[in-house]
């Protein structure tokens, strides 16, 4: 290995003969996918809570 490194998106990648280190790139992409999935789940949860809050307000208005 030549010891050359490039910094992309705040992450260091070793430069190898074929380009960037495949292992590092795959690891980074997997991390991004995992973060994306967690954010989607969080967004779905917040959406459910918002709908519940809206229904609760509607029911409270009916009772008042």
Description:
The protein has 64 residues and is of the alpha+beta class. 66% of the residues lie in helices and 19% in strands. The chain contains 1 helix and 3 strands; from the N terminus they run E-E-E-H. It has one helix spanning 22-63, and strands at residues 5-8, 11-16, 19-20. It has a 3-stranded antiparallel beta sheet with strand order 1-2-3. It is rod-shaped, with a radius of gyration of 23 Å. The N and C termini lie far apart (73 Å). The model has no long low-confidence stretch (mean pLDDT 90).
What's a concise summary of this model?
It contains 1 helix and 3 strands, in the order E-E-E-H. The chain is α+β, with helices and mostly antiparallel strands and 64 residues long.
Characteristic terms for this protein:
64 residues; alpha+beta; 1 helix; 3 strands
Between the first and last Cα atoms, what is the distance in angstroms?
Answer: 73 Å
Number of helices: 1
Assembly type of the chains comes to single chain
Report the mean per-residue pLDDT as an integer: 90
What radius of gyration results from the CA coordinates?
Answer: 23 Å
Find the structural class using helix and strand composition. Answer: alpha+beta
- The count of DSSP E runs of length 2 or more, i.e. the number of strands, is 3
User: Low-confidence spans: pLDDT under 50, at least 5 residues?
Assistant: none
Question: Describe the biggest sheet?
Answer: 3 strands, antiparallel
- Biggest sheet, spatial arrangement of strands: 1-2-3
| DSSP helix fraction | 55-70%
> Which of globular, elongated, flat, extended, rod-shaped describes the shape?
rod-shaped
Order of helices and strands: EEEH
Give the DSSP E fraction (strand runs of 2 or more residues): 15-25%
């Amino acid at each position: 290995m030549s010891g050359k490194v490039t910094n992309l998106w705040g992450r260091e990648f070793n430069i190898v003969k074929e380009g960037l280190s495949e292992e590092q790139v795959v690891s980074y992409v997997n991390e991004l996918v995992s973060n994306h999935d967690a954010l989607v789940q969080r967004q779905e949860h917040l959406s459910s809570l918002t709908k519940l809050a809206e229904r609760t307000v509607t029911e409270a208005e009916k009772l008042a």
